[in-house]
Amino acid sequence: MYCFFDTHTHLDYVQESTQTPLAQLIDNASAVGIQKILIVAVFRENFKTIEKMTALFPEQLRYGLGLHPLYIRQHQQSDLDLLAKQLARKDPLCTAIAEIGLERAIPELVEDDLWRKQCEYLEAQLQLAKQFHLPINLHSRKSHEQLFSFLKRIQLPKCGVVHGFAGSYDQAKRFVDLGYKIGVGGTITYARANKTRQTIAKLPLDALLLETDSPDMPVFGFQGQPNRPERLYHVFQSLCALRSESPEHIADTIWKNSQIFS
């Protein structure tokens, strides 16, 4: 059996939406070879919850703390202060600053004040990543150009991943050339997602990570249901169909790539 690492989940929300015990979610994932799962935060209310979840299963779970741009209206300076305080504890199970980034697909979040705030919070969290030598797990919707500018200017000792990537090959390659990985999720399981599928087929294999974004980003055939980590295997199968390398080589390379979040 291959070994996999689901490098982007909201497992607290999976548990909530499916009413499935955490142990069962982990067993279901293990049954298809998923050895490790990263749980990411979106606002301060997640911090304690995912820290406690991870502590219950320290072999299988890792977590990242961060303030997501979708919730920029809610975030306050005290949230950044709390984030810095939590990171300063240096919990070995906290292996990322996540989920952070930029959001330009929602018009009101691009209005002057909120866009300025998005940029300020991204900048602050990139500086924390630099300070604590942690990789980042990045959200980017219609914001690849702006995000690239931040990442080029603030060069991190450990880069991270642009998660759920759905841009062009040229956009992806610019991130890869900076040292970032590209997160491959359920999008590639849809035949109509031509641009993303072609991009993922062309990128270097050592630039790719696998993820589910559970309970979001459903894979083909499971639309309308909360996504779950075990469905990473469907993403892997779709990736193998797009690539020329053997499944063994793909699985082994991506497992090694994923260790940035171990």
TrEMBL record:
Could you name the Gene Ontology cellular component terms for this entry? cytosol
Q: Which organism is it from?
A: Conservatibacter flavescens
Q: Does the keyword Manganese apply?
A: no
Name the chain's protein: Deoxyribonuclease
- PROSITE patterns, alphabetized: TATD_1, TATD_3
Q: Which InterPro entries match?
A: DNase_TatD-rel_CS, Metal_Hydrolase, TatD-like
UniProtKB keywords: Hydrolase, Metal-binding
Residues that coordinate or bind a divalent metal cation 1: H8, H10, E99, D213
Q: What GO MF terms are annotated?
A: hydrolase activity, acting on ester bonds; metal ion binding
Q: Hey, which family's this protein in?
A: Belongs to the metallo-dependent hydrolases superfamily. TatD-type hydrolase family.
Q: Name one Pfam family in it.
A: TatD_DNase
Cite the SUPFAM superfamilies for this sequence: Metallo-dependent hydrolases
* Residues that bind a divalent metal cation 2: H139, H163
> Any signal peptide, and if so, which residues?
none
